[in-house]
């Protein structure tokens, strides 16, 4: 019994020591883990990548552009001198004509009847004159023989004068009526090209109504409309450049020839005629043109994307400038708008790098990574 009891006692000691060692080991491991977790962790900063561009130098002359249309220097608006119904048309839009060409004709039946009436009046007046002349001749002989008094003779002499005046009047009316035949023909007075036709066959027109517009051969101009606050600037402009929508590679010089003295009653703008200098043959009537008034002040400007403008509060626009990978908000002065761009007149220098996208998600002093190309 005694050896068994001793063995049991020794086993209990081993278990106790083993448990104690295990507890101490767990405490050590837990302490190490707690120490590791209690250390402050290093903060990883999130640096965004922004799209940027570098400002380059551009010398732009400030000016304004007006759209217009190529017109002729001299334009004739032709009309019939009498009323009537159009029965014949000899021209089309764009027809080349010479002086004396018949463009249109109106019905001359009524004119013929009027001329016949005047012709009959002439014959009647001539008959009265012949009768008055015969009476005057007989009474002159009676006066010479003392058969009548001077007063009676004067009556017949006066009747003769009245008849002679009646003949002249009838002949004048006949001549006037005969001229109506010529007025039934609408003729060109100068060579040129037909630019407008406002009446057709069968239409009844009145005297003086514009029927055909003729652009005479020679100079070409561009007609533009200018607001009243730009008239003086245009009047004093030293350089005008004219470009054409259909001829993208062509730009020629222009010169102000005429400024309307009054504004248009509808648009409240002034009509301005710009002469085209050194006119090339490819310029055609009716072409769309753009007249640019080049200013005398040449400034360093650049166009930047509209998306680069930051304007959260107030009226002052600004852009984010990146320097040493840090953002700075810089106010700018803007000019004319373009196609998705805006002109910057001041606030930026050549070599400045600005952010061109996502500008409202950034903040002052923020670190960023840059990307993008120069403009």
UniProtKB/TrEMBL annotation:
Residues 115-184 form the Multidrug resistance protein MdtA-like alpha-helical hairpin domain. Residues 302-370 form the YknX-like C-terminal permuted SH3-like domain. InterPro entries: Beta-barrel_RND_2, MdtA-like_BSH, MdtA-like_HH, RND_pump_MFP, YknX-like_C. Keywords: Membrane, Transmembrane, Transmembrane helix. Residues 222-295 form the CusB-like beta-barrel domain. Residues 80-215 form the Multidrug resistance protein MdtA-like barrel-sandwich hybrid domain. The chain crosses the membrane at residues 15-34. The keyword S-adenosyl-L-methionine does not apply. The keyword Transmembrane helix applies. It holds the Pfam family Beta-barrel_RND_2. Belongs to the membrane fusion protein (MFP) (TC 8.A.1) family. This is Multidrug resistance protein MdtE.
